[in-house]
Design a protein that fits this description.
elongated; two-stranded antiparallel ribbon; mainly alpha; 6% strand
Length: 95
Amino acid sequence: MSRSVKKSPVCNDHHTPGTRWAKRQASKAVRRYTGDMQNGKWYRKLFCSWDICDYRFYKTRQQAIHEWETSLWLQDKQKSRKEIVLKWFKIYRRK
């Protein structure tokens, strides 16, 4: 089994259909542009990067434990500390 882990505790929003659609639209806009591009980074002006909506969530293990300890949700309180840490590893640390 692989022991590779993410370098930083991040959860990305790569599963949202809107994100994939917006990235595809940006790619099409750049490929279909018939004008002259002055330099390599000029393609960014063809499609607004704010429309792509990539979300990135950072949470350390200590933050996850602290949220569990201070949570008022019954659903989170029924889980043990070990289950919370394993859930954090699954979402934020493992590849």
